[in-house]
Specification:
Length: about 475
């Protein structure tokens, strides 16, 4: 696996300790609960076994914390899985999860990571895990990050630290990568990509651009040697007008609304299906909304199911004062039907909130009282980047590679929306619209632009295509990362 230093299995390492610390301060730090790592330092542990997984893990797993803000004591938690193929030459990928504030663990078990839950009725015992044969860690080393702070096991000692947004959390990710690479210098020379789906798709190009700028400025190592190649987004939110304005055309195209309703919307709304400017437009959009609510917006082919969100969404503007109360709540999510995708979310809640799991992952005691798959509704988050389109444009015109994948059965962010904003760039087409295949069958359709941007649909794909179409997504990712045609 290489010559770089690693902690031995089950052992935690503390790197870059604070300088000139007095004996008294060290003693105080040791007595504090939870144990603290000062920002700018990092702690990591090698995990060889996990509760619910039979035998030793067949891959290298490391978990840890990295401090990204000294003032608030903000530390981001990560899962690192080394490439199972050739970690010396395979690319390094930073994988983020949407929400915002969904845990990076979702990437490990639901998206591109090496684990999956056994789908079986929960009987009070610990849910079981199995190896995911379509894990992208077969072709890349991947960091799954709990970001922004408040996601998963990432935390801040000062409640003010949770008051972040698109810009500040993206900058914290850049700080995280600087510190992580300081502790893992072996990866500085690897091809590097940033990836994520849904809301993460909004900040992925932002983070990629910030890292690009840091490399260009060459302020300090290891950025000088980092080989940033590009980014990957799936059904990406952009914040632009394109996101929601294609719900109506898409719903018409797949038969959710009638010709008459669609024609009425076109006539009365004048092309704006988001902000009605007259009563006739408002009335027809209200009717359309009711019809769209009849289907599962993440995948129009699936049954509507309980979301398995442990907490109801709470509309609170000044929510810091509620943080302590929020963390004291213990209410398991409503158990959905086992045939629902969200049942796996229910299993993750039960698995993550078991003490044996916390101990195995080396979670700092007293930091996160209750793990939530998606921590929404209470912690403040500012969507302070109105649109990420400029970031996509800037990166691709500078030659960075971009893979934009889109499940064609997603109503949350229809592929028509993504197709429209890409088309607005007026890039020269290098390879026109065609099918791409897996096992001799069309897995979707794709187009390649001269600016190294590839757009591809996944046939039957949902809002997060790596979740419900893992085989097709695996084939796409493997080909694209190898710089081969889809």
């Amino acid at each position: 696996m290489g010559s770089h230093h690693r902690p031995t299995a089950g052992q935690c390492s503390l790197v870059k300790p604070p300088r000139l610390i007095t004996c008294l301060l060290l003693l105080l730090l040791l007595l504090l609960s939870p144990p603290l790592t000062l920002p700018g330092s990092a702690s990591s542990c090698v995990i060889t076994h996990l509760p619910g997984f039979h035998g030793r893990l067949p891959f290298y797993l490391e978990t840890g914390y990295i401090g990204v803000e000294e003032k608030t004591g903000t530390e981001l938690f990560y899962y690192f899985v080394e490439s199972e193929r050739n970690p010396d030459t395979d690319p390094l990928v930073l994988w983020l999860v949407g929400g915002p504030r969904c845990s990076g663990f979702c990437g490990v078990v639901y998206e591109v990571g090496p684990l999956d839950f056994v789908l079986e009725a929960y009987n009070g015992s610990l849910p079981r895990l199995v190896y995911n044969r379509y894990s992208w860690t077969q072709m890349a080393s991947i960091i799954f990050l709990d970001s922004p702070v408040g996601s998963g096991f990432s935390y801040a000692r000062d409640p003010n630290g949770y008051d972040v947004g698109d810009i500040s959390s993206s900058l914290q990710v850049v700080t995280f990568m600087k510190e992580w690479l300081n502790d893992h210098p072996r990866y500085c020379s690897h091809n590097f990509y940033v990836g994520g789906a849904s809301y993460a798709g909004k900040v992925v190009p932002v983070i990629t651009q910030y890292i690009s700028e840091a490399i260009d400025e060459q302020r300090q190592r290891p950025w000088i040697d980092l080989k940033l190649q590009g980014y990957i987004v799936g059904n990406p939110i952009t914040g632009s007008k394109f996101d929601k304005n294609f719900h109506v055309p898409y719903s018409h195209g797949v038969g959710i609304i009638s010709d008459q309703l669609y024609e009425a919307a076109v006539t009365h709304c004048k092309g704006d299906f988001v902000n009605p400017t007259n009563q006739l437009c408002g009335n027809v959009l209200s009717t359309i909304d009711k019809l769209m609510s009849e289907v599962s917006d993440g995948n129009i082919l699936e049954n509507k199911c309980v979301k398995a969100a442990p907490k109801p969404t709470v509309d609170v503007s000044a929510s810091r004062a509620l943080l302590e109360e929020y963390n004291q709540l213990h209410k398991p999510p409503i158990r959905p039907s086992i045939d629902c995708l969200s049942y796996r979310y229910y299993l993750s809640y039960c698995w993550m909130n078991d003490n044996t799991t916390r101990d195995a992952l080396k979670i700092k005691k007293g930091t996160i009282d209750e793990w939530l798959r998606c921590n929404k509704g209470v912690l403040p988050y500012a969507q302070d980047i109105p649109s990420s389109l400029n970031y996509h444009f800037n990166l691709t015109t500078r030659g960075y590679r971009a893979l934009v994948m889109s499940g064609d059965h997603d109503l949350i962010l229809p592929f028509l929306s993504t197709q429209a904003w890409i088309g607005s760039f007026n890039f020269f087409i290098a390879n026109d619209w065609r099918a791409w295949h897996v096992d001799g069958q069309a897995a979707g359709f794709t187009i390649e632009y001269a600016n190294n941007l590839t757009f591809a649909t996944v046939k039957g794909g949902s809002h997060v295509v790596t979740t419900n179409k893992p085989k097709e997504s695996f084939a796409m990712g493997k080909r694209w990362l190898a710089n081969k045609p889809l």
